Fold this protein.
Amino acid sequence: MRILITEDDAALAEALQFSLSQAGYAVDWVANGAAADEALKENVFGLLILDLGLPKLDGFEVLRRLRRRNPSIPVLILSGREKPEEKVTGLDLGADDYLVKPFSLNELRARVRALLRRGQGGVSTVISYGRLSFDTIARTAAINGKTLQLSLHEVSVLEILLLRFGRVVSKEQLVEQLYSYDKEVSHNAIEVYVHRLRKKIAGAGVTVRTLYGRGYLIDYPGH
Ligand code: CA
């Protein structure tokens, strides 16, 4: 699950990024509203954490623009402003939850988990193809209910491919999505993760195919 933090307080943003990365999420951070608007247009995020007082474009405007394009991505507003009418404005514009600074990182993580559960529509958080199932909240994969031992990188590659089942994902997209975990992710590293993943999901009824020069896709063999 990839999360975007929009926060101009660098110390706070780094603490959030660290805390959420430790919890197993891929976390990107931008420090102004215009950069958030661009990042949200170009990438798929599972959750947006949004400060209100931001340079270039304020949080309300970022939210307004986002909701025109995407009504469903969960949004958690962070704000130092304690004026109740701002909370109402944020919620009316389509935010899902609201935290007033200062808050504890434990509470933030709990809210993130709750929003991601809700973001699944209260239905199943598990996606299944063939004998392979993937829990998008716990970030675990299983074959016939038996949990696979996957590294954080392997989990991320599998998640990205499964969320675009049957569609090509380029190496650049994988590099970009894994970047948050490890600044040294190279094309060669991606090949290694895919290679290991392929071995681990053998027998799942789905395969990771390589389309030379284009990228990878996961689908049923023979398709
Ligand atoms: Ca701010």
